[in-house]
Protein 1
Amino acid sequence: MGEQTDKISGRVKQAAGALTGDEDLKREGERQERKGEVKGHIDEAVDKAQDAADEVRDKLEDAVDKA
């Protein structure tokens, strides 16, 4: 599942668990919501790394062109 899907599904499970008194379902929802948050942080880190790599590549290409 995607980041947002995990977050939303997790919240729904938490609410269902709270309404029914099912602590296992509530905890499962909490874990799923955290999983979505982690996916978001990973996606951000990958994007930043890709941007940095692109910047280095561009600088190297400029240096080669000037040489």
Protein 2
Amino acid sequence: MDKEFERIVHLLKEKEEIGQALDIPVQLRKGLLRQVVGYADHFLDTLDERKAYEASGYDSTDTDQGFEVSEIGSEMDAMLDFIGERVDTTGLNPASGGHLGYIPGGGIPASALGDYLAAISNRYAGNFYASPGAVRMENAMIRWTGRLVGYKEGFGGNLTSGGSIANLTAILTARTAKGVKGKDLTQNVVYLTQQAHHSLAKGLNMACMGECVVHRIALDSGYRMDIAALRKQIEADVHDGLKPFLLIANAGSTDTGAVDPLDAMADVAQENGMWFHVDAAYGGFFLLTEHGKQMMRGIERSDSVVLDPHKGLFLPYGSGIVLVRDINHLLRANSYEANYMQDADQQTLERSPAELSPELSKHFRGMRMWLPLKLHGLAPFRANLEEKLLLARYFRHEVHGLGFEVGPEPDLSVVVYRYVPPTGDADAFNKELAHTIQQDGRVFISTTVLGGAFMLRLAVLSFRTHRKDVDVLLEQLGKLTR
């Protein structure tokens, strides 16, 4: 054995011994798990004592060096103390029932268990050949969601990291399905409203479609797309030699929670040969309720739809779904060839997520959705959504009784409102009102601007938000406006 080879053998043994630290021995692993689970249990058990928003923690401190890594490892108890001080007690607390400002709430515990199992096994859920069970689980979630939307056989979809990537995937699919080429961009027209989520504008740019003509259609009094205005704009565009291409609807807009007239929009899309996309990232899972089914009548006629389980199913952030009524459009938009994937091509019993998405490497997202749905059944999810619909109406009634101006009856679980004082600037008053409530931190509200007016905004969707949390806000608003 020559010296170089001896050196290699020696180094292999040395590096193996050092690297084995990553495969934690069973007793140490159990101890670490006890520490982490203990921290998580304490976090959950003390949620009622924690603020929904902590205004401190934004400035740099000496302890920020704890974010940095080095050659030498750290003790778990010290790291958990650091997380408790610098991560879990600063800024917005999405796990709090007092989180009334933005749409997503805290992740349900069962999803964390699913994520743990998915990460431990690290199943590759991108390809059926690599993990038939993981792909079947994800496809089962797609089939269940598609049936909830009302799609018939032949649809397809993908579990994404959220609504933004889901919207981008839908836009790319629409471009492919309608044969939109770069040279034709300036002749193709996209129709949406000012209430459309910003991810759609980003998606158009990322899909190299920023040169399309984009029309923001007028809204009715409920902040929904005005169908008469849409028809008038399409007529003008066709007269000018433009091609109506993509019609985008809201099923729960970000600002107001409004649901556009989906059935009527589907008629317009069909009449003009347009791709009809529905952004139901926020509102989609209200289809589990009778109210949601009525509000979103016509969603089953869309060519594509986006839903976020990290909103309406209360999963952790990083959970989105895109569905396409005809799976063939999705396949064509994401077709690829790679020699090193030739073995995978032999297994075609199920469509693989990598065939239906821009992603190849992907987290096994299906487990975080499947496990809680299987564990709890649908009933508690439906009850939570129905409760949120009721809470929004309860709040609107009560805050109006306090003398606040209120927006239209909520389509879902967002309420816009503002206080107009007898004297002084109303916008400045409401800004200060929001700031005071946020600094208090027991509950967190957000703001927006509608028709040039500064508005306060209640968004109820956390599974931990109940009447007592809404009453805390109402009590504060009452005291601050007396």
Protein 3
Amino acid sequence: MENPRRTYPLRQWPTDSRFSYALVRDVANVLTAHGYPLLADSGDDHVELGQILLRFLYDPTT
């Protein structure tokens, strides 16, 4: 049963073209602008942030 007080998760994944590396990079830049450290150059931080965003934005059961 859906919670009427929640907007997320969405049901559009994997066809939602709005989710991209640029989105993950923009979120990382917002975090940095708010005083959090830069993401690691290795890319592992970017991958993990992307996975967290996917879990927040989209319902993995659809």
Protein 4
Amino acid sequence: MAVEPVTDATAADLPALGIDIGGTKVAGGVVAPDGTVLATARRATPGSSVQETEDAIAAVVDVLARGHDGPLVGVGVGAAGWFDRTGDTVLFSPHLAWRHSALRKDLAARLQRPMWVGNDADAAAWAEYRYGAARGADLALMITLGTGIGGGIVMDGRLQRGSHGVAGEWGHMRVVPDGRLCACGNRGCWEQYASGTALGQTAREVARSSPAAAALLLERVDGDPDRLTGEHVATAAAEGDPLALELLAEVGAWLGQGIADLSAVLDPEVVVIGGGVSVLGEMVLGPARHRLERALPGRGFRPGPRVVAARLGAEAGIVGSADLVRRAVADGQG
């Protein structure tokens, strides 16, 4: 399909393609300049193969481009992983096959479109700053709670990626010396105590040591504590299970402690909580705010950040990636 050229001057006023790559799916959308998602498509992610993953990206781009009548600015791609400062190279992706892979160069050559490539949590942070819960903030932090913890920083209207491109990986701040072993190789990382994975692990520990206390949870897994997951706990909490609510409050407290620590360093105006765990709303955010009030350095003498739920949900990565490639082209960098 022929690609219509887009000039720097017109880029800001045209739709762009946003791609969000996770461990199980490649999701994409055509996104208007106001952040509206006009069309979507998805493919499964063959995470063990670089070539097949890029095939899936190309397939989603092709479907969306063929279904859109008119020019598209380019393609923005957000993926779970560590990128270098330029965004050209994926240094490491925990759930995908990329290792020091020149993703931007490879996709640009294949798709023949302007590209932005970067971390998916950075893309989500940018989307919330541009269109969502952090709109217009001087300094906004995004914390994505899912299997682990990721995030992004927007300061003075710019996405901050750090000197080496890997800023915002605060899930690997060590909060418990010699604590739980983390997939990164260290022990006691924040995401081992405040994530969906942490929620499931704590539930399993409690169920093994106090099966009577966990009786309602164990009914959901035929009495096998090893089968308990964070999703089981979340469902039980929504139905009023006292233990499940207590476990969510514990995750929320750890979240609030981490936000207090980040506030000591960065002093954000707002902290946006996204990712799968964030859909639990005040069951997690309420305890997080309570702990933040108690743990904020200088509490009583300084304001703390607002802690709010993300507004864009699962579409944040798509919307942010699309807007970032639109801005790159408008600035002559796509």
